[in-house]
Amino acid sequence: MKDYFNVDEWKIIEEGFDPHYNQVAESVFSLGNGRMGQRANFEEAYSGETLQGNYVAGVYYPDKTRVGWWKNGYPEYFAKVLNAANWIGIDVQIGDEQLDLAKCEVLSFRRELNMQEGYLKRSFRAKTASGKEVEVEANRFCSMVDDECGAIKYTLTPLNFEGQITLTPFIDGDIANKDSNYDEKFWDEVSKAITNDGGYVQMRTKKTGFEVATAMKFSLLQSGEQVEFTSSPIQKEKYIAAEIKLKAKQGQPVTLIKYAANLSSQNYAAADLADRSADLLTIVSAKGFDTMLAEQAAAWAEKWKHNDIIIEGDAKAQQGIRFNIFQLNQTYTGEDDRLNIGPKGFTGEKYGGSTYWDTEAYCVPFYLATAEQKVARKLLLYRYKQLGKAIENAQLLGFNNGAALYPMVTMDGTECHNEWEITFEEIHRNGAIAHAIYNYVNYTGDEAYLIDYGLEVLIAISRFWSQRITFSAGKQQYVMLGVTGPNEYENNVNNNWYTSTIAVWCMRYTLQVLNKVKAADEAKYNTLLGRISFNTETETGRFKDIIARMYFPQDEKLGIYLQQDGYLDKEQILVKDLPASELPLVKKWSWDRILRSVFIKQADVLQGLFFFEDQYDIDTIRRNYDFYEPRTVHESSLSPCVHAILAARLGDVERAYQFYLRTSRLDIDDYNNDTDDGCHITSMAGTWMAVVQGFGGLRVKDGLLSFNPLLPGEWQALSFQIGFRGVLLKIRIAKDGVSISNLSDKIADVSLYGISHTINANDEIFIAN
Ligand code: BGC
Question: Which one of 344, 358, 490 would you pick to mutate in the ligand 1 pocket, going by the greatest count of ligand atoms within 8 A of its CB?
Answer without folding.
Answer: 358
